[in-house]
Amino acid sequence: MVLKAPIRPPVSRGKQAARRGFEVALHGMPDLRADIQRWRGAGDTLFIELTFRATIGGHAIAWNNVDRITFSGGIAVERVAFFDPTIVRRAFFRNFAAFRQLRRMRTAGREGR
Prior knowledge:
The chain is α+β, with helices and mostly antiparallel strands. Helices cover 33% and strands 44% of the residues.
């Protein structure tokens, strides 16, 4: 499985890397959740529109995302996430509490390497 997203790292390969990416995100944003808005599949491609929500620095934020998942032989082989990371980045630099969350997330990401 390959994950491509407008974040760091921009490409992750394999189930363990994907799992680690979610663990890091949840370490920094423990209340992170995603609400599915709609989805559509055709052939070997699935699109899922989601709204992510989290609290960063004491402020609730939300951002929209579209995942394009490609299957081969019934197995997901690629996931591309389309979203504007600016909303999340700005939230992490809003105040000191938010910046501490970002540092925890980055530290957790380095520990998993």
